[in-house]
Amino acid sequence: MIDKLEFLLALARERHFARAAEACGVTQPTLSAGVKQLEETFGVLLVHRGSRFRDFTPEGERVLSWARRIVGDARAMREEVHALKHGLNGRLRIAAVPTALAMVERVTTPFRERHPNVQFTVLSRNSGELLRLLDNLEIDAGITYLDNEPLGRVATIPLYRERYRLLISADAPLGNRDQVTWAEVAQVPLCLLTPDTQNRRIIDRLLREAGGDPQASLESNAMILLYAHVRTGRWASIMPARLAATLGLTEVLRAVPIVEPEASHTIGLVVPAREPMTPLTSALADETRRVAPSLAD
Amino acid sequence: MIDKLEFLLALARERHFARAAEACGVTQPTLSAGVKQLEETFGVLLVHRGSRFRDFTPEGERVLSWARRIVGDARAMREEVHALKHGLNGRLRIAAVPTALAMVERVTTPFRERHPNVQFTVLSRNSGELLRLLDNLEIDAGITYLDNEPLGRVATIPLYRERYRLLISADAPLGNRDQVTWAEVAQVPLCLLTPDTQNRRIIDRLLREAGGDPQASLESNAMILLYAHVRTGRWASIMPARLAATLGLTEVLRAVPIVEPEASHTIGLVVPAREPMTPLTSALADETRRVAPSLAD
DNA sequence: ATTACTTGATAGAATAACACTATCAATGTG
DNA sequence: CACATTGATAGTGTTATTCTATCAAGTAAT
């Protein structure tokens, strides 16, 4: 039964019978039969199919949402029993928004001190993608914005507040200032994240509210690329203060606080809203709560 | 997998392999094999066995608690999909404490108006037994005391407050009074529920706190038996006011409010703390919320 | 229109899983 | 010490599951 529900989850992810089957490590007829068996036991069609996968029926959507929960719980059960026997081990799959990537270390480093047998996979994802992965149980936790766009059914643990700095060469027009306004920043050509990221949407909004017309002279989804450009002193960017501090400044590169307004957003851990959590997730949440005070401001 | 977890739940209920097997509709070797298979997949012993069932290992207890949740969710899923197709139907299994039995009608009657295809099984159980049944998914909901003894992991919906009356013949010493004190009642031989019931423990406590020495001249776990005695006019009892009102008074039988203190306890619906609830449970909770205001005082 | 490709369903065979009956060994009980 | 109780084990037949191979329906391109 649970295997069949996993088939259904894979089908929801892949929207394609053969690919879903591959993801489950079975052949396509096996997955087709599994889905059909679910439909027979429930006595309802779950999937609209023409000659190909179309979408889920309303009943299918409901089953899907139960399946997420049941499959998640079954995994949590296995994980917990394993942890009871062998101590905390396994792999934590985490995704973080690009602006928070450099801060993941603040959690993972002390976590590893405490639980050396736990391994990590950390992905860079934009916030929307991150929530989708969390929903589909493809990651165990995410680090993203908690207070800006809606999150869905998740539990959250605040980690730190993101504040904004203009990274710019000391030689440039605004480079010698102690602070600049968003209105002033709006006049500068910037290296920014792509518009699919929440950080970019936040910055665009702030620039627009200051009467500017946001346009990035260079866009990327990788923070490291933006930084590589900025540190030449020939480009400017807006980055979270903590990120700028982590990356370090050169002799010519300055991080100027941006005011009017002194905007800030909360970054934190999001985990599936399941009670009880899996032992790994629960330990990660504990570590996050432990670390957060040292990052407060 | 889910079937095996059901085996485990049955074993926890029956504490006996053969009886658990019978409850699941399989033979004893089948259930033994199922449990053993769970133990193999987890790589841990779940059950301490000597020549007979002893108890669950710590890991077994954890698996058990996950099993309750997973099996419950799987049932809820089936029920919900069925309800989507055929409207709300099926059977609601409810247990109520003896003093609340007569009030169950206040919920079931309007519920049936709304959902005529739902059938009921209503059992009389003491509060401890009721919570155990709820835990083991043997009932869908209970009606019991919400504010006296601890309940465990359940969601509660208050229904009404239970207040106490001395049911006694008008000829008897206290029979002509407008109110009596608990201290006075403590002097009267009473027909009461058995001490396994929460109502009896509440009354005993109130009598003891009034300096009395509670002793029942007749005990039963069936309210109807107590009433049959009392209505002869030759016995006395303490009953909740609403129950006395439902049963009706005879010419000689009076229901005298008991004061010092004017004790009261909240009676309400308890359902498993699962989010989302099954459609039947959810509808019952809705109905209870709808009815409660008309019973408030 | 015709052809080729994509996608999911179906048929048939091999294999694995499952549940049953019968029986046994261990532990209590009178 | 006989005897009942309890759960594990062996052996067997049945059912489920999964695979490979193939098919039919629908799309897209020529």
Question: What's a quick, concise take on this entry?
Answer:
The structure is a homodimer of 297-residue chains. Helix content of chain A is 45%, strand content 25%.
Description of the structure:
Chain A has helices at residues 2-14, 17-24, 28-42, 58-86, 104-114, 127-135, 182-185, 198-209, 223-230, 241-247, 279-295; strands at 47-49, 53-56, 90-96, 118-124, 141-145, 154-169, 180-181, 190-193, 216-220, 237-240, 253-259, 264-272. Chain A is α/β, with parallel strands linked by helices and 297 residues long. Chain A folds into 3 domains: 2-82, Arc Repressor Mutant, subunit A; 88-160 and 266-295, D-Maltodextrin-Binding Protein, domain 2, CATH 3.40.190.10; 162-264, 3-Layer(aba) Sandwich (D-Maltodextrin-Binding Protein, domain 2). In chain A, strands 3, 4, 5, 6, 7, 10, 11 and 12 form an 8-stranded mixed β-sheet that branches. In chain A, helix 1 (2-14) crosses helix 2. The longest helix of chain A is centred in the N-terminal third of the chain and has 29 residues, at 58-86. Chain A is globular and about 70 Å long. At the A-B interface, helix 4 of A face helix 4 of B. Chain A binds a DNA duplex (30 and 30 nucleotides) through residues 16-18, 26-30, 32-34, 36, 49-53.
Number of helices of chain A: 11
The chain pair forming the largest interface, with residue counts per chain, is: A-B, 25 and 25 residues
The CATH C-level name of the largest domain in chain A is Alpha Beta
SSE pattern of chain A, N- to C-terminal: HHHEEHEHEHEEEHEHEHEHEEH
CATH topology category name of the largest domain in chain A = D-Maltodextrin-Binding Protein, domain 2
**Beta-strand percentage range of chain A:** 15-25%
User: What is the β-strand count of chain A?
Assistant: 12
- Helix coverage percent of chain A: 40-55%
What are the low-pLDDT stretches of chain A, counting only 5+ consecutive residues below 50? none
Oligomer: homodimer
- Main sheet makeup of chain A: 8 strands, mixed
Question: How far apart lie the N and C ends of chain A?
Answer: 49 Å
